[in-house]
Write the structure tokens for this entry.
Amino acid sequence: MTSSSSKSAYAELQIISYKDLESRQPESLKKIFSACQEDGFFYLDLIGTAKSNFLRTVSDVVTASQSLFDLPLAEKMTFDTNKLGSLKNYGYKPIGRNTGVIKGKQDGHEIFLAPRDTLLKLGDHSDGLSYPAKLQNDIPLLETFSAESHQICLTILACLSTMLNCGSLTEYHLPDKTSTSATALIKYPAQKLGADQGGHIAHTDVGSLTLLFCEQTGLQVLRSAADDWINVKPVPGYAIVNIGDSLRHMSGRVFKSCLHRVLCDPAGQDRDRFSTIYFLRPQTDATFRDENGKEWKSIDWHVRKFDAFRHSKAEEVERLLKGES
């Protein structure tokens, strides 16, 4: 992951063609393996592929999320994720509930999560869940986004399995098995100049793969040097993909789960920032060992990690946010 010396420079992430991954082109397999080892982040080019129509779905999901977040706070809070279970993969989280980027301040984003299990009616979730009326007509859209995103992730995992030569990583993410995988709609409201509440605290992701679609800047990744943050530029037609803790551990720490955060970009401070994300996470009964050799169930790692977002930056919390136990 490189950049020029300018503070406004962007990370030079590897660009991986999804079309080439589908056909298992050797050079693309080498590139994606290298990107996961060295950076933990890469661009996935979906232009001109069988997933080109999927990009229109992404655009439609963004439009739906804008209408959702325009609802009165009281209506959104009827779907408060704190009241809907311990997994934090369903419902609404308001601004300011979690620890923020700036020490002593709270976060600056609101989020609505729709779990894959309920969207696709898997396991004990055949009856689905309720959603805000404003979003109800768009549930088929979210179902499509979830299913297509999951298939993209499985293709990536199959390619990485080939290069890793350690068995199939897809076996931990079987389509008919329950997991905490979820679609996330996120809004970072426009900030007044100099506002000190905003963004998303530095962290690694809890799951296996994250597919991010956004149009505005704000995402930053940490390079190897201490406190050396670099911006990631959104590119139309590309997903920004990153490795999460679970895949890092499943790979025996071959792959990198990179620290990242979201800050309000001064250049776009007067505009709302919207992100559409798919979090691929292992099935709940999957197991892996951390860097200390301790065995974890996927579901236990998930719950412990999410607890860290609600606490101050104590030493233990700092380790968890970095993907360490």
Remarks:
- Residues 139-164 form the longest helix (26 residues).
- Residues 31 and 191 are 38 Å apart (CA to CA).
- Confidence is low (pLDDT under 50) at residues 3-8.
